[in-house]
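Allow me, if you will, to draw on your knowledge of protein folds for a short while. The matter concerns a single protein, recorded as an amino acid sequence and a row of backbone structure tokens. Kindly check, if you would, that the fold set down in the tokens agrees with what the sequence suggests. You will find the record immediately after this paragraph.
***
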Amino acid sequence: MFISSQRIIIVRNRPPKKQVNEELQWLGDSLGLFNLRDKDKSCFRIFLEIIKSAKQGKPLTSDELADKLNLSRGTVIHHINRMIESGIIIHQDNGYMLRVDNLTQLVQEIRKDIDRTIDDMSEIAEDIDRWLEM
């Protein structure tokens, strides 16, 4: 899989108590998915539906998400695009799904993305240092 541009956002928050909804909210917050402008938690609700669909191995279309969550298709597409940009979900078989089978694998893949980005940054920094004779 080739991603031309990816925005990886990690926010360090205090871990929640052991309740699944709080932990899902914390995970999404830590991935930079949710913000204060999302008053009706539409991104969180879409994230939950995508997670549920991963369990069934079935992609969801933007229309299915909009109908299921009583959101406009535009709202769904906006949040879906942010999650694609973050490397959390992918477009597959005319629908959207997690890029991997479960959340543990998702976090591992994001870690690999971050490691690759840091490696690239280090290589570029070395090139710049050489050019600037530092």
About this structure: The chain is about 55% helix and 5% strand. The chain has one domain: 20-131. The first helix runs from residue 20 to 30. The CA atoms of residues 25 and 82 lie 16 Å apart.
